[in-house]
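Help needed: design a sequence for this.
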């Protein structure tokens, strides 16, 4: 009897493990008609892969849409679970501001911040949102950490 052993080697270039949610912000806003509660509901549906139980389920109206896209949020479950301590408006703004980041830039640099000059939202949204922090001309996201080698 021949016994094959496999050796599992951890890739040392990976510094952390995370979940990523790819989404199309414009489609979410269009389908939700800008309703903050519906935006949060859609983010929950695509994060937790919720399927409606029946026709009368409040998630049914969003079930036929595909919300995949090029915008991303790292650790969306942390945002939605711990985000309950914040207002739904702040969580929705967090996702909206995050949608302006370039996914391909993240893949190359692992930088989760957003250049303040690239962000077209008002200063008021960024400064009043407790989930966002403006530091050194970059917008930092509370539930995402930047790891640099």
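Sure. Designed sequence:
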């Amino acid at each position: 009897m021949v016994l094959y052993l496999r050796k599992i080697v951890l890739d040392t270039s990976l510094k952390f493990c995370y979940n990523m949610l790819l989404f199309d912000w414009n489609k979410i806003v269009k389908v939700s008609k800008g309703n903050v509660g519906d935006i949060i509901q859609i983010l929950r549906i695509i994060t937790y892969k919720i399927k409606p139980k029946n026709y009368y389920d409040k998630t049914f109206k969003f079930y036929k849409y595909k919300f995949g896209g090029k915008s991303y949020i790292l650790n969306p479950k942390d945002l939605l679970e711990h985000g309950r301590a914040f207002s739904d408006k702040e969580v929705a703004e967090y996702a909206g501001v995050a949608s302006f980041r370039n996914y391909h830039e993240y893949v190359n640099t692992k930088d989760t911040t957003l250049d303040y000059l690239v962000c077209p939202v008002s200063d008021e949204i960024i400064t009043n949102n407790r989930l966002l922090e403006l530091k050194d001309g970059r917008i930092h996201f509370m539930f995402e950490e930047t790891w640099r080698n």
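Residues 20-141 form one domain.
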